[in-house]
UniProtKB/TrEMBL annotation, chains A, B:
Keywords of this entry: Pyridoxal phosphate
Organism: Cylindrotheca closterium
Name of the molecule in the record: Aminotransferase class I/classII large domain-containing protein
A UniProt-annotated Pfam family: Aminotran_1_2
GO molecular function, one term: pyridoxal phosphate binding
InterPro entries listed in its UniProt record: Aminotransferase_I/II_large (IPR004839), Ethylene_sulfur-biosynth (IPR050478), PyrdxlP-dep_Trfase (IPR015424), PyrdxlP-dep_Trfase_major (IPR015421), PyrdxlP-dep_Trfase_small (IPR015422)
Domain Aminotransferase class I/classII large as annotated: residue spans: 119-474
Single biological process term from Gene Ontology: amino acid metabolic process
Amino acid sequence: MVKSEFTSLSRNAEHMSVGSNCPSWNRHATSAVQTRLYHSTGSTPAEDDRISAPRAAKAVGLLPTYLADARAVEQYSLSTPNGALQLSVAENQLLEDLLVPSLTEFSSTLAFPADAIYYQPTQGRESFRKAMAAYLEDMLKLSKPMDADGIVVGAGCNAVLENLCISLAEPGEGVMIPTPYYAAFEFDLVARAGLSISPVTTMEYQDFDRESNIIPHEAYYPNRASLDAAVKMSLANGVNPRILLLSHPQNPLGICYPPEVVSEIIDWCREKKIHLITDEIYAGSVYRDDANFVSVLELASTGDGEALGLGPYIHLVYALSKDFALSGLRVGALYSENPKIRVPLQKLNDLCCISSHTQLLVEKMLTTASDDPNVSWTQGFRATSHERLRKRGDAWHSTLDELGIPYLKGTAGLFVWMDFQEFLPAMGSDDERERKLYLELLKEFGLLFTPGSSMKNEKPGFFRCVFTAASNEEFDLGMKRLKKYVHAKRS
Amino acid sequence: MVKSEFTSLSRNAEHMSVGSNCPSWNRHATSAVQTRLYHSTGSTPAEDDRISAPRAAKAVGLLPTYLADARAVEQYSLSTPNGALQLSVAENQLLEDLLVPSLTEFSSTLAFPADAIYYQPTQGRESFRKAMAAYLEDMLKLSKPMDADGIVVGAGCNAVLENLCISLAEPGEGVMIPTPYYAAFEFDLVARAGLSISPVTTMEYQDFDRESNIIPHEAYYPNRASLDAAVKMSLANGVNPRILLLSHPQNPLGICYPPEVVSEIIDWCREKKIHLITDEIYAGSVYRDDANFVSVLELASTGDGEALGLGPYIHLVYALSKDFALSGLRVGALYSENPKIRVPLQKLNDLCCISSHTQLLVEKMLTTASDDPNVSWTQGFRATSHERLRKRGDAWHSTLDELGIPYLKGTAGLFVWMDFQEFLPAMGSDDERERKLYLELLKEFGLLFTPGSSMKNEKPGFFRCVFTAASNEEFDLGMKRLKKYVHAKRS
């Protein structure tokens, strides 16, 4: 009994995973599998039931499992050139040369003010919240100033998102999310907050004319019809939807919803009194000029009253983990002008505060000038980041064009969404077919992509390629391997 | 309707509180009351019900309210010498001169390794966990080495405690806590974790012979009888107790449970299969040689198996907020050898990670040598801290001796627990009588102590004095004011 439990724990650990951005499975993290587990001495089955709470195991069960397979496969390195290439974790490794020297410099010139050792305002230091507001106004191109008191900074986007949702919905109520979606949302919203996910299915893209291998972005736009349908479905399942969570720019699709689509969603939410949370964690990674990205905050700003005039139903979450590749600093931020949740959010944030020391560092980064007097450090950094993202994105897009593989021509984020339906095996359930294809790509061709099923995509055969998680050499090799794969399959 | 809601929000904000250590009410934090709240335009009662979740308001309601009165009173400062003295917030301000230059130096010499920008292991960097283990082994005087893989570092003691309890008990199950207890435990364990508090009442001290004004420590020791009684009471209230949370050294009492008392508690917990969480956040602030403090980890270590041999029912939480006065860095740690919660704890901790940058800083602090080759930086720091605590403790104890006010002769922590029953007004309920006394001390004599009722003390008339939250001048004035008060009341 005891033994089988440990076995099951270990299996959990192996599977525990982790879609795109889950810390434990990137190259920097130690695997939970490696941790030592203690002998249990003489416990009985009855005792085993008491040594942990069922919700603990359930929380772990919420994590995606596809990387378990990847872990069983040799990873690519200079000494293992045939190992699998990591193209599935949403990490941007193109910015290290800019970040490391700057952070070292910022850190070395930090004075440590006496007040920083003591308890801070739970929502964050005032000067840091002001710096965050100024940064967001600039980066999101807002035409009115934010209210720094509407900002709460916490230990990561997941942490502030969890508290925001706890403040807006009761356990068992629903968070609507357009599919496909970032796999870790399920852990963030269900594990402790106790919410339910109500997926929003958008139009299938085969309904569009296809003249090229470019999937039309429109195929994935939510609208009144798809939102209404999702509400109906959710209610039929006994779940009352209270929140719509939008990933904008969209992960895993790598696209931006155009302003008219966003405005329709905003209007719908306000009419239905459903909270709209816009997750704009990739807003500083919009790398194409024609992306047509406009922040939900700008589109929802009514100009009525103070600050942006968002009213109680519009909220933003953001973090430095993607646009700055600073996931290790755990700096997230939320913004809301809803007066009823202001105090609860500040108080709940006490359970996920950012170190004063890191607040000081990041405040410095966000407020530093650059060598060019017309451009701040963050603006210069962002311009370089866009250039590098565009170069990688272009290269991957060209490869797909050349191969005639349908894909979404991304404009933002770190990914390309690809349609590999052509390569699905004929037999089996949807899940089995996609899993076979995933394993073939991984084991036979050394390509580790994020499978669409882990992101709740409706149809099997879609994959997300993260084009920033590899070195230049690895990225080039990835393109070669993909060509080899397609040629092998078609010949 | 809308207006009244805003009024109620503001009132909440004013009352929101906070016992001893809640960030929002110390002198460094901005008050939530000062935050700007937006106009709501034309919302209806039905709409109001949708703009926030009931659990948000409930969470705020868990915070203690006594400081609302304090906020209405002028605070002491050089320009307001008649203002009230802050002797209620558990902050140690005696260490600033040691900390600020050292942290500035540690910070300025920090290299920023490239791997620190990316996602870290969710349970903390390996080198930091090893440094934390070595520090705890030394500070807690453990005779066997800890397993660094049993450590999870998270954003504060409250954060790791919450996840530990979530992993050990289901919503609605009980956490037993001996009274009086740290007021914020209720927020930490109820707001999101959904647990219930089951108080453990210890013997009343009037059952002891009183030859002096010294309250016997024994009056507050839990034992098999009081624990059994608490279980019975909890079950009668429909709450199944799964955890016993021990504050050791005890806040607010300022005492340590002797080894035989702790051993009895450990045995009882193991027999009953109730998890024992020892909160040893003040273990580095044991300032008297005769304190007889022994860590629960040392007493529970069986030597069986690997690491300490604690088995699945013994767990520790710790943080740097008290012994190092570094509450602003939000560095908490938990330790457990329970294999079933290892992975859940690592994963849940993703929602309250410590910045890599602060992990690097604190690792440096914990591993630095001092000028004396035989003493590490933390050992030298601790010796100085003990000296200063003892000096303040002695002075306050002497004042109470001189005045003949019964008190617990503390040996650890930042407080003295005082019996002011003599000064309670005769009429009214227990709560009313204590509140009148509290307000008299505050408003007429400028003494802000923590009232026992906010810490769920059974009897009215007890107060906690925090003797480290004031400057030397303020502390001296506090002693003068107390003398003045007692003389005024007795004359």
